Amino acid sequence: MALGRGADYTVVMAEPNTPPPVELPAQARRARLLLWLVVCFFITLNVMFFAYSCFRVPINALQSGGDATAKVIDHLGGQLESVAAAFRRGTITTAFVHYATTLTNTLHLEVATLRQMEVFTRQEEASTGFGFIPLPDVIVEARAPVEYTYFLDLKGRWRVDVKDGVVRVEVPALQFNTPALDVSSMTLEVRKGVFKVAEVQEKLRQSLSSLARRQAQENVPLVRENARRQVEAFVEGWLLQSFSDGPRYQVRAAFADEVPSVVPESAR
Known about the structure:
Blueprint: H1 26-64, H2 66-76, H3 83-89, H4 92-104, E1 108-128, E2 133-153, E3 159-163, E4 166-171, E5 175-176, E6 180-181, E7 187-192, H5 197-218, H6 220-242, E8 250-255
Parallel strand pairs: 4-8
Antiparallel strand pairs: 1-2, 2-5, 2-6, 2-7, 3-4
């Protein structure tokens, strides 16, 4: 149809037909979420493996000893001071006690445990009639397993001396915890006597704790050398972790009640 001149008209532009967004089914959404979780898991796994590789190599090298240990120690040399430097500054003893306290989380360093069957005996003279009529002696015996634990007091007197490639450590005298007597496995036996046996047995039971402590003191020579080796191994571990040249030193330990002292008076 022709439009006349001067006629008014309006052009209407039709908007394109845009389809509505398609919503994924629930199963597809779950599949997409699972895919992302798998991707994140593998990324995290690779990061952890990378970190493990970075830290595991130096640790394995330290444990393997030899040239590998020397290389790792040289690598850490910029971060750790030397044993001689710490000794000159007079901080080596304090550093060791702090290390031991932190590692054990106590003020006691356990160095030996002894388990053995103990035999405790009590003998008394039985009498009656106000003590005027003597009777045969009464001897009773108790057998029980006892565990003795020996330790060093970290608050005690510790001294460290360094000379000629040897770290000499003087430690406090050995002490022991209350002996752990297994009463459930204890057996009582009458070795001699008939009269007042029950009374003597009860007295023996009441004295077992003090008898076990006395035995713990007598057992100190039996555990001293094992305790010494434990102290030396503990100090070696401290040197390895705390000083750049720690593995190059030998360790010798002695107890304060041993003569002569391993640490000269000039070093105290």
